[in-house]
Write a structure and sequence with these properties.
seven-stranded mixed β-sheet; 6 helices; alpha/beta; Rossmann fold
Length: 197
């Protein structure tokens, strides 16, 4: 049965490794949508660790556009359908959101510009509305399951800088949107998972 599953948790909470385990158990024909952009040595090392863990039978798809647009995902989903995958693992939404929001240069602002914040929030909402509509349509019509990994970033202290605060708030909004669309939601703490939906 096709469905949408959200795996949510903090950094290093075990969500990615569990997502990979879940995908392996569901199918050998997995599409892995990697959302990261390699911008430094640390990111390069993290990506290599993830690549080594993935079975060679999985096909990896990457977003080439530095600042992703819904059309980029639509093209990738068309390839996924063409290649007849029956599970799509998306890891992770947090990095995808950062890439979308980064073009607004909020990190260069010393104080929050409400117009800029509202513009960024509007664009993010439109992006993920389209993203979720695509996921739901594909899941229902083509019998494909989606495993979506995202970070919970709202349980710590209030960030001291504008980008951190806006990113935290926007990430919370996006996680709610995905959770509302998901059939199952799991929260991860120290390698342990709790089903919350």
């Amino acid at each position: 049965m096709s469905n949408i599953i959200l795996l949510l948790g903090g950094a290093r909470s075990g969500k990615s490794s569990y997502a990979e385990k879940m995908a392996k158990e569901m199918s050998c024909n997995v599409a892995y949508l990697a959302t990261s952009e390699i911008i430094d040595e640390e990111m390069k090392k993290r990506v290599l660790v993830h690549r080594k863990r993935r079975p060679s039978s999985w096909k990896t798809y990457e977003i080439e556009n530095r600042y992703p647009e819904p059309d980029d995902l639509e093209k990738i989903f068309e390839l996924i359908l063409k290649n007849r995958h029956n599970v799509v693992l998306i890891d992770c939404i947090t990095i995808l959101l950062f890439r979308i929001i980064h073009k607004f240069k909020i990190d260069e602002a010393e104080i929050i510009n409400n117009k800029l914040e509202k513009k960024a929030e509007k664009e993010v909402k439109e992006f993920f509305n389209r993203f979720l509509k695509m996921c739901i349509k594909i899941s229902e019509r083509k019998n494909i399951s989606f495993i979506i990994v995202s970070n919970e970033v709202g349980t710590g202290i209030v960030p001291a800088y504008p980008l951190g605060r806006i990113f935290r708030d926007t990430m919370g909004m996006v996680n709610i949107m995905i959770s509302d669309a998901a059939d199952e939601v799991y929260f991860f703490i120290a390698g342990n998972r709790i089903r919350i939906k």
